[in-house]
Design a protein that fits this description.
Blueprint: E1 5-8, E2 24-27, E3 39-41, E4 48-51, E5 57-59, H1 62-85
Antiparallel strand pairs: 1-2, 3-4, 4-5
The structure holds zinc ion (ZN).
Residues 15, 17-18, 20, 42, 44-45, 47 line the site of zinc ion (ZN).
Length: 86
């Protein structure tokens, strides 16, 4: 299994739902650092969030969540197709 890219967040944004400070991140992308617009999940309450332009956190828009779920579904389909070829 591929290892996650992890790091510490300098600004430590607060989750708007559970109000805990988020001080780290994990990403499946190599050499990726969170940036404005990036979608994330609160490690404490699992709320789907999005980084703002000043790297605070807000609730992700329903359209953004829908787009992420479409991408996840697409990736699941790709992986399923790869499994069937092996
Ligand atoms: Zn939270």
């Amino acid at each position: 299994m591929k290892r996650l890219n992890t790091g510490q967040l300098i600004e430590k944004p607060v989750c708007p739902t559970c109000h805990k400070k988020l001080d780290g991140f994990a990403s499946h992308l190599t050499d990726h650092w969170p940036s404005p617009g990036a979608v994330t999940i609160c490690a404490y309450c699992r709320q789907v969030l999005q980084f703002t332009n000043d790297m605070a956190l807000r609730l992700a828009d329903p359209e953004v969540i829908e787009q992420v779920m479409l991408e996840v579904s697409h990736m699941q389909g790709v992986l399923n197709a790869m499994d069937k070829r092996q």
